[in-house]
Amino acid sequence: MERTLAIIKPDAVAKSHSGRIIERIEAEGFKIKAIKMLHLTKQGAEGFYAVHKERPFFNDLTDFMCSGPAVVMVLEADQAIIRWRTLMGATDPAEATEGTIRKNFAENKERNAVHGSDAPETAAFEISYYFNSLEIVG
Ligand code: IDP
Ligand code: MG
Hints:
Blueprint: E1 2-8, H1 10-14, H2 18-27, E2 31-38, H3 42-48, H4 58-65, E3 70-77, H5 80-88, H6 101-105, E4 114-116, H7 120-130
Antiparallel strand pairs: 1-3, 1-4, 2-3
């Protein structure tokens, strides 16, 4: 079993798509081991996306991520990291496969509905960024 961090980003929460996205997550067999709603600060978003701080979209991305509440979750499944990224679809919804969450719910390459960790090391960092061990069910 593997764990990954998922975020329903502020664009999707604002449009009341959280329930439908969570329904997809559960229908695909992921177990939700932790969940909460957060309104990130600019500093909190900058820390989370620190790997992207030299990228041209960093300032816009971190403004967007603190523009409204987000839902953060720990998902567990066999191969959770790759399976959640496959279910999310490509970063740019214009390039995302039919039926993926980004194809169905994302507005554009920045406001793209969901986040998922991309490797075991980033999943460990990202889970610990938002949850302590008492907040994750066994
Ligand atoms: P990922 O979320 O698919 O892993 P990353 O390359 O890690 O994509 O980028 C992190 C986030 O930054 C994306 O989900 C998206 O919100 C934003 N982003 C990535 N590339 C661009 C871009 O070219 N323009 C605007 N925003 C971008
Ligand atoms: Mg990424």
